[in-house]
Write a structure and sequence with these properties.
3-stranded antiparallel β-sheet; alpha+beta; lipid metabolism; single chain; 2 domains; 15 strands; decarboxylase; 3 helices
Length: 250
Amino acid sequence: MAGDLLDNRGRGDAEWGWPAIHPEGRKFGVAAVVAALAFIFLFGWGFIGWPLLVASLGVFAFFRDPERVVPQSQDLIVSPADGLVTLIGEVAPPPEMQGTDGFGGQGLSSAPVTRISIFMSVFDVHINRSPVAGTVRRVVYIPGRFMNADLDKASEENERQHILIERNDGIQIAFTQIAGLVARRIVPFIKPGDTVAAGQRVGLIRFGSRVDVYLPAGTDSKVLLGQRVIAGETVLAEIGKQGLIEGVNQ
């Protein structure tokens, strides 16, 4: 009935459930299982097959795709990635996100803004989500190196993909998917012109990586260095809100 509290799937009761496996990862998990069974039962090489079978479980776990409960306030910027906040600082947005796009679309200015960097280990969920609702204005893929994604210069030298989203009020938020030491593929789910909701799945990075978020001018971070964040749920910032926060590791 009207006014009843529902869970994130429209049901009356919240309950735990096994997370789904994203289709992008099912082929890897199935291939690992088939190879393991072949080593065990066809070749009799259990010393290879059994460890490989255990490893296949890790592959399925890596590509898990849990449901998330997205905050609904329109001025909130939610985390696009699960992981650890490793860098927060003032930097200029990527050149690919600045100026016009050649088709009349205006991007970000060159003025420095707050950048929040989130490092994803191989144990984190690697499905990335949109930090805000709006229209995808740019998706720019850049090939590059595979340095440790935790390093600051990885944002300029590693393989990466920039995404620019514009809200209905014209405010733009850019974020960058960055491949790391182990990651070798950035997989997009969106293209320019698509309309996305806050917390909607927009892509993934295979096997360890990083995501940078560029906050709008006049907006400060609501998270701290060393804080763990959850894609689609943790609030990184509130548009137009400033003010430093402090925290202590415990």
